[in-house]
Amino acid sequence: MTTAADPTRPSLTARIGRIVFVVIAALVVIAVAAAFFLTWTIHRSFPQTSGEVQLSGLEKSVTVQRDDRGIPTITASNAHDLFYAQGFTHAQDRFFEMDFRRHVTSGRVAEMFGESQVETDKFLRTLGWRKVAEEEVANLDDTTRGYYEAYAEGVNSYLSSRSGAELSFEYAVLGMQNADYSPEPWEPADSVAWLKAMAWDLRTNVEDETDRALLAAKLDGAGSADADTQALIDTVYPAYPFDRNPVIVPKITAVEPVVTDATPASFSGATKPEVTEALSTIEWQEAESVIAAASMMIGGVGEGIGSNSWVVSGDLTESGKPLLANDPHLGASLPSVWYQVQLRCDTLSESCPFDVGGFSFAGLPGVVIGHNAQVAWGFTNLTTDVTDLYIEKVEGDEYWRDGALTPMEIEEDVIKVAGGEDVPLTIRRTVHGPIISGLTDDFTAISDAPVVGAGESVLPLDGAPEIPAGETAVSLRWTALEPGTTASALFAMNTAQDFQDFRHAASLFDVPAQNLVYADLEGNIGYQAPGRLPIRGAGDGWLPQAGWDSAYDWQGFIPFDELPVSYNPPQGYIVTANNAIVTDDYDHFLSRDWDYGYRAARIAHLIERKAAAGPMTAQDMRDIQMDNEMWIGKQLAVAMDKVDVDGKGPKAAVDLLRTWDAQNAADSPAAAYANVLWSNLAQNIFVERDVPLPVGDQGRLFSVVGAMLGDADDPLWTNESLGTTDMYSMLALSAEEAYAELAELQGTDVTRWNWGSLHALPLTHATLGTSGIAPVEMLFNRGPYPVGGGSSVVNATGWRLGESYATTTVPSMRMVIDLSDLDASTWNHLTGASGHAFAEHYTDQTDDWVKGIQKPWAFTKKAVTAAAVGTLKLTPEG
Q1: How many Cα atoms sit within 13 Å of 462 on the Cβ side?
Q2: pLDDT in tens, 245-271
Q3: Across 551-682, where does the E strand assignment appear?
Q4: Model pTM score
Q5: Among 324, 457, 749, 768, which is most exposed with the fewest C-beta within 10 angstroms?
């Protein structure tokens, strides 16, 4: 019997629909709740930037004015409160970055991120940056130490008011893995240790020395004769092209000696030396005019760590006052390594002498690069050789030294690991420094197959004379592993009023050694090479040295007043781009591993060309910073005119080069092809061999291949495995491979190729951006951004040849200081003021950075007030 359906009961379809609706509604509620929770978690770490905050430890009220990019100007009535407020402000915007950095510099990364970081900690703990920093803090004068202590008080004041995700969203993510972690109070040594990390980034040639040692060992293992090994290494590491590219100081200026209250670390000897006489008789002349050198259409090393800076005299400018430009090249990072800030005492006095603006490091008090009301300065890496590897012969806990066994310095340490067991660490040191073999693959490989430099020769260890018995180890001598005075130099630089003050500050700036350019309101321009620069013994550090023979030890450091200096040179400008500082006639050995000078020559050429067309402006300086000309691309374009390639596609690609202006513009098809052609050619010449040759420095390869293009029968063109017999066959093969590679990446229509997307810049968060967890990486990473420029280009967006065309190193900031009107100066850096993901100022400067747009740099009190969009009053508690 059939029962009639109940008309009041919902159908099955309706019931299923209702269930689905309820489930979907529940999921939506959960998703919305999760979104609200995520948003709340993210936003609760954002700093307060207006209103009033009461803080314990302040003596008087402090004003923090922020402009529309979140850049703070801090005004205080005394130096203690000024640096206290800088510490508080840095912590507001960047504390997670600061916390991570201090764990790096202390070799304590595993305490945050667990077992995966133990090997990193072993290496960093062995170098001992933190201990050296603690010694430097102890050596500071009372006033300077007070600045660091006030800064730490400000950081800790911020920490006392927040914890966990309230400090930064990263701590919420970190807490999922390491729930017990909480930040420790900030200490002055945390700040000073960051200078060691920067020195390591700027240590220059230790990679070249390592590559040469490994190459020499491989060639010896392949049966090469010592003479053949030396000849090949000399070919692929050519001397600096003094006949083509400029030196920074073609003529050393006679200046007054610097008198300091403290002994600069760059002086040799343990006691305070007498001040040496001013240089008055030595003149270093350039071999050829800059115009002749610059006519080669040139660029520079972009994939490495370098920088550009130059200063132009008022004789060449529209205003009649100097212009100063700077763009340091560092690894791309998120957040950017730089933090823009201005520090102002409301009334200048001996006890509160600061009125300075510029680029600081989060975690470090003061301003690193910038200007005050009277002088401006910029930095580029000095590129001098301040590191040496030593081959040590070891027996147990002793090592051989001048025919006798000497006890090593032994230190037992413990690495604490989040979520894991403690890891013991034994650190061994010789007279040269820590033993680093066994800690990294490269240094261990050198120990396993050691070679030493002996005069102008390369010797495998079994061919070197009088070698002691024992195991082989590698030690590191590096200027940054001894206490220095850079922690004091920054404040001296911030308050300098003239060139003599500037040089006094430079005399304290020992590590990392930097080219320092200068300009002042009186119209003067200058340059000073500072730094603790070693005087070597029997060797020059081009290859590892014999550690068992004290003849190869450092003999001291070059006295400051013997270092190169230039003041108001007759050409009216000074250019530094990591090129050679002086010619080889200089009394002291500085390095054989300079950047090869292509960027420097191109910048000098553009300055002279623009100055010849009319007085220079600040916009001319900004335009030079964005110059994309690729020297080797132009040479290849000329060479390809004589090369036959097979196929319609490759011919169309080569045709792109015929009308190319050699500019690596982001939207250029020709630039895309030129760089891919260059990559394939370099790999075919240097990598596709029985013993691959190092390709880590593209500027060096420019010099090698540039010379080869003048000799079609150079032996390096021949490669039996590739079927090439001369230059033409090698170029044809590389051109066809380049077309095939680009066709696969961007299609077969050559007119639709572009360099920008191929060379795009990914901004990757320094810690969580490579977590391997896609949703986490999406929260913190940004980009990629299509960019122009390239390796060995003034707009130095570097990439790793043979690995990827993606940008890895960048002009980390750009600034142009106009001494005729400081408020008309401009600046920009890679990301933004904030380190908080999703904050307004996390990456708000990146689009302008990509386009080369710099915004005005308000400096005077009136301009700062007009630019302020938020004002925070910090007042004493109670």
Answers
A1: 5
A2: 999 999 999 888 886 544 433 333 333
A3: 556-557, 565-567, 573-576
A4: 0.90
A5: 749
